[in-house]
Amino acid sequence: MQTNEDGTITVGIGLISVGWMGQLHSRAYSNLRYAYPDLGIRPRLVHAADTAPARAQEAVDVLGYERASADYHEVLNDPEVDVVSICAPNFLHAEIAIAAAAAGKHFWIEKPVGRGEEETRAVSTAAAEAGVVSSIGFNYRHAPAIEHLRTLIATGELGRITNVRGHMFADYSADPRGALSWRFIRNLAGSGVLGDLMGHLVDLVQYTLGPIAEVSALTSTVYAERAELPMGSGTHFAVVEDGEMKPVENEDYAGMLIRLSDDAIAADAVGTLEASRVAVGPRASYGIEIYGTNGSAHWDFERLNELHVSSGLGAAHQGYTRVMASPGMGDFGRFQPGAGTSMGYDDLKVIEAKKFLEAVVGRAALNSNIQDALSAAQVVSAAERSAEDRQWAVSQPVAGTTAAVQA
Questions:
Q1: Which PANTHER family match (predicted)?
Q2: pLDDT for 266-298, tens place per residue?
Q3: Are residues 218 and 87 in the same domain?
Q4: What is the domain range of residue 155?
Q5: pLDDT digits (tens, 9 = 90+) for 9-27
């Protein structure tokens, strides 16, 4: 990193894997100057790596990186790279993150960080030993409506929180002709919808309410076979006609009963969480409902700029009020001037990039971190154990998370 004459700090950016998410990370870094002109941090897109030559070239020609390589180790060994974005498939996450930590590179990594609790813990240990800053792709927590919801809970406006209901319902695998990508193969993806979508939902619950202590879960695989898709030839949205059928090795649906920990801001609250990748109807309906003794609130990603709030028990017109995201809620004012003009998914990644780089240069660490990823992975692992033995399972406390806890 370099401090310039005007006091701004230039941070050298490396990218590993130039797919959709890698492109999104790159745009987020580039758009920081528009959303946060006073940030005092200048990302410099230095070095990208991708095994596909066309994507590596795209990193230079389209995204604006100074150079590109086929081997991610060249990015990690580049002395001009200070931080790396790790956007490779799940089965490479832990390997690359551990290598990044060993190289002294701060990293922003997509979830799940590992193919389960064990790999995620190994990354956590590596990051701690190397003293590098980590940030996790839990982008939904950055929605201004969610930040406002977190404030309503923390200030007690909803009263004592009694229960939560959450869902992450997507249709990207609803078509039975959907390809058997790496996401359906256990040694490549780990769990199925538990790691892919439920991990996001667990983070939303823990960010707003506090740590999950116990779970009771069940899972199901709706489509036992899918047509094989050669690695690197498409995405998990691809449809294959008349392909060779191979078994799906992880779950399409997961449901959980949960109990929050004693030190959560919503201590001893209970709830239900569901996730599906084969839902017919919802496109990306990722929602959370919070119920308290004096009110409630609910949010859904498909309408990410809205929060529905009911507060004031006994009011003449008791019910929900639609509250539009507006300046003063989270970072909304950095993107739009007033309520009703909507933010989008990409904007949440700009916020994520800003929080990551601020932590890297030593400012307030408001970003999600590897301990948040480990905590979510522990809950997912507990759910897998519970679904297998049909018993309640415990998730142990994780220090250093950003979970909402009592003061």
A1: BCDNA.GH03377 (PTHR43818:SF11)
A2: 998 999 999 999 999 999 999 999 999 999 999
A3: no
A4: 141-394
A5: 999 999 999 999 999 999 9
Q: Are residues 109 and 166 in the same domain?
A: no
Mean pLDDT of the chain: 95
One domain for residues 386 and 372: yes
Where does the pLDDT of residue 100 fall: very low under 50, low under 70, confident under 90, or very high at 90 and above? very high
The set of residues, in sequence order, having a beta carbon less than 8 Å from that of 116 and lying 6+ positions away, is 190, 191, 195, 377, 380, 381, 384
Determine the pLDDT at residue 230: 67
- Residue 399 inside a domain? The answer is no
106 lies in the same domain as 153: no
pTM exceeds cut of 0.90: yes
Residue 336 located in a structural domain: yes
Q: Domain containing 18 — which CATH number?
A: 3.40.50.720
* One domain for residues 315 and 190: yes
Same domain, 50 and 169: no
Q: How many domains does the chain contain in total?
A: 2
Residue 163: CATH number of its domain: 3.30.360.10
- For 302-340, write each residue's pLDDT tens digit: 999 999 999 877 766 678 999 999 999 999 999 999 999
